[in-house]
Amino acid sequence: MRPAAKMAMPLERxxxxxxxxxxxxxxxxxxxxxxxxxxxxxxxxxxALADEASEPNSFAEPWFVAASLAAFGAGRGVRIVExxxxxxLIGILPLAIEDHYGRSPVRIIQNWWHHHMFLGTPLVxxxxxxAFWAALIxxxxxxxxxxxxxxxRGLVGDGPVHRGLVEAAAA
Length: 171
Known about the structure:
Layout: E1 22-23, E2 30-36, H1 43-52, H2 62-72, E3 79-85, E4 88-98, E5 108-111, E6 123-124, H3 129-142, E7 150-151, H4 160-170
Parallel strand pairs: 5-7
Antiparallel strand pairs: 1-2, 2-3, 3-4, 4-5, 4-6
Helix pairs in contact: 3-4
């Protein structure tokens, strides 16, 4: 077992109703769940996903995200979005709403980022890249809290996760 798997993860905020799994329109097999902050029941699945991701990213592993949220996440409204095929976690991405895009005062949603992260690629199970992005985009399109502009920072150009995003966006 990796040392990170032993690390305690914060539970959902007290008094908040957890978001339940909802099927993604057009797919009976995929489910998207949005957490407002970290959820302790994700730790084992998240660690397993990190071991089987198409593009490894230590900055997207649960131990780093937990430490980052504790140090830099206060007041940022970070949401953790998980995508599952059945009960199997196929991808996870921390997201935050930003009040600007560059110098433009346009509200966007983007992968959560801080100055101590050097790669923004989400953890996505190998072979599930397109399905992950399609489910995520469908969910964000239907979510009242998400602005209609998704900005993804720090992807590896032409890596499998980037190619999955391009394919899902073109569909």
